[in-house]
Amino acid sequence: MRRWKTLLLALSLAALAACGDSAQPATTPAPAGDTEAPVITGASDQTVPAGSSISYRAGVSAVDDVDGAVPLEIDAAGVDLDTPGTYTVTYSAVDAAGNRSTCTITVTVTDAVPLETMAPEELEARMFQLAEIVYHEIITEDQTPYEKAEAIFQYCSTAITYTGDSDKSSWQKGAYDGFTTLTGDCYTYFACCKALLELADIPNVDLVRLGGVTDHYWSLVDVGSGYYHLDCCPHTTDKPITSFLLTQAEAEEYSAWQGEDYYTYDIASCPVTAVQDTPMNRAPWHAPGEAE
């Protein structure tokens, strides 16, 4: 994940050099003292295989020395992501005084690469492109880690439909399939959630069921107060639970109630320790009929 973000940072710095001096003459007379146009940063040339998706807004912003953050307009109408070729995308921003900046990038669409022959790093890059589109639709940077985790949980648990099957060759492949088809099983929910948690810089640890009659996958996450259980996969209607930031005690109680070692995992080999019995922002969960 650090390698992915380092690449994005390098592209953003290059784009800053390209776009930082793109101020155009003011379209209307500017008040004295405000002749500087907004500065557009983060826009960079992109190369993607045919059939990919691009988040043109991800990581791009326009800031004015007087007005602060200003709206960013993006013209990508001429881009056809299904047809190989070279296309132009134009970013523009105008401050309150009418000073305008523009920045142009090139999008190169190459021939599609079959997933079966795609290198792991390319698959990961394409998966994170899809994840970034979702991320910027559901997350704002002023949110707390708790709020970001909650938004991620809500998206994954509601946008994906459970079908009981998925490719488990890697979590990156599981997430790629999840974002493209919005169907899968518990591994799909786990993988898509993990991708979004990585983008949000929320520490997370992969968990796999120990025992039971079927496999199950979920995460421990730390939003600032220790590690809690997070499982976006829907539960059976006869024994429901919202598995958003469960304590260790709650996970163990649900496992005993539901059966089949539902949230049993190899605690001894886990690199972190889950918070035992201090719920976040809510009352403790108890199985129906248990003393509270």
Shape: globular
The secondary-structure element order is HEEEEEEEEHHEHEHEEEEH
Helix content: 25-40%
Low-confidence region ranges: 5-18
End-to-end separation: 41 Å
Overall mean pLDDT score? 88
> How many independent structural domains?
2
- Rg over CA atoms: 23 Å
Largest sheet: number of strands, sense, barrel closure: 5 strands, mixed
Total DSSP E strands: 14
In short:
The protein is α+β, with helices and mostly antiparallel strands. It has helices at residues 2-19, 120-138, 145-159, 171-181, 186-199, 248-258, and strands at residues 23-24, 39-41, 46-49, 61-64, 68-69, 73-75, 85-94, 100-110, 161-162, 183-184, 204-208, 217-222, 227-230, 244-246. The chain contains 6 helices and 14 strands.
